[in-house]
Every structure is written in C-alpha cells, then in structure tokens.
Amino acid sequence: MNLGKSLFPILVLILMVAGMAGCASTTARPIELVPQDANFVANVQLSKILSDQDFRNAYEQAKKSPDQPQTFDAALNKVVEESGIDLRDFSEGLIFGDVTKLKQADYIGVIVEGSFNEATFIGNIEARAKEKFTTSDYKGYKVYTSDDGKMALAFLNDQMLLLGSPRAVNHVIDVSKGERSRLSGQLLDTYNGLGDGLIKAAFRIPESARRGMTEETDDFPFSLKPFADTDLVGFALNKEAKVVTLRIDAHFVSSTSAQDAKDTLSGVITLLKGMSKEAEVKELLGAIQVTVSDSSLSVNLKTTLSQLEKLTESFQE
After folding, report:
1. Which residue, 120, 142, 176, sits at the end of a domain?
2. 77 pLDDT more than 80
C-alpha cells in the first residue's frame, strides 16, 4: 500500500475537519503556525465532534451503502484499519493549504493537537501501509516522508503533529522557528471573525471559480453572476446542546456587489419557501438571516440537526 495514498484520506476526513531552539513553543496555537503561503485555513474540533451523541446518531441514521460502516465507531475503526491513525487520539485539527491545488495535494497540511507516542504512531502507520518512511532532518526536526515523496510527518512536540505535503510541513517548521511569515491579513481576519465553532474555515475564491460564476449553468436554479465578485468566504458551524448555528461571511470587491448578492439570495429563499410543501421547512427557511454591511454579506441560521437534515433533503429534491 502506498503511504501517501493511505494518509491522504485523513486530510479529507478531518475536513468533514512559533518555535525557538529547534522546537515549537508550547504556547503556540495551531493558527499561529500557518504559513502566509496558505489561501485557505480550516479548524475542526475533533474530540468535541466525535464525542457528540447527536452527530453520532446522525451518521448512524443516514442512508449508507452496504459496504460502508454502519455505525459511527465502525467508521472510526475502519480509518484505524486502513491508515493506522485513530482520530480519537486527536483533540483538534487545523487544515491549511492552496485551494487551487487540492486535487493534486501539492500544498496541504494539517496541524493536529492530541497525545502522541511518536514510535507507536509511526509504527502503526507503517504496519498498515506495509512500507517504511524515509527519515531526514529539517532544521532540527525529524521528518518522516512516504516512499513516493508526496506525504510527510513531523512532531513539533508530544502534543502537536504535522501531516501533509513535504513543502507544507517544512513551511510550518520554518514558521515555528521564526524564519517564515505566518498567516496574516484579510484571510486571517475573516477566520478570526467567525468566533468559536466546531468547524470553521476561511478561504480565498480562486479567479477561475469567480469566472465560472459568470457562465450560464443548469446546476443551479438561479444565476451565480451576483456572486462572481466574492473574493473571500468564511464558514462556521457550532452546536450548543441541541441548537446548531450556521454562519457564512462573504467579502465582495464592492458594496454594490454585496447588495446584489443579498438581493439574489433573499429572492432564492423566498422562492424556495413558496415551493416547499412542508411547514417545518418553510419555517426554517424563514429563519435564515441575510444581512449586508459595506462590502460584506453574512448569512446566519439557528436550527437543529434534524431540521437541517430536512432542509438538505428538500434542497436535494
């Protein structure tokens, strides 16, 4: 089994998820280690999500094919069997990279907080992949690299693990040693402005995606042209007791573009309310708040997991 291929699904799953003297500062937060080169960043509170009974129930009640794990724990165990990594050992995962190169995985990394025994962790992965990592020294850190050279691991300390493409891993080490600029500017401001969340992310919209919004398509029942001037988007999902809060913050190149997008989105919500035959879905759509401030648009919704599932099913229909 190829080590790179066996570890890459961990990056995907974690998405549904400064140092001195050669070691990372114990006070450095993961977001403080993200390189300026990144144009997207996402945080997943893994331990909170994995221990939440509502999320566990939602997975087990969802439709699944016979070859998929039927229970939440079975799904986690399958990850262990295939990769040697137990997500239950992780408390938090921060993903960063280049959104234009996700398919190639050329520049993507994960900074994971948890409790790690380096020898055991590496041994479990090698046993599942039936391959050995090659090791090298990078500025005082031991870096484990897969045979195909596409995936690397490094431990900043016994509570912080780096996982990703070799360049991304090296860049985090550079940041930890103060030799590379860490993430700053509007992208970081958007991320921090989202507040707390079980999952939150911020990313720049690639120019190619913005151009694509100006083209006609049958994939959406409305034109995406009003959203073509979006340059930054932030998303957050949080949950307290049974209440789920969703928030989307979008930044536009002008206040006019933001207002046009708000008018379009509000119209779509009104249209969907008129088309829906379920009173609960109508009520939920009516609870969506869309606001504009200067060149920024915000969408907020408070709901429950069950109501959110009904809304998703309604959209699919």
Report:
1. 176
2. yes
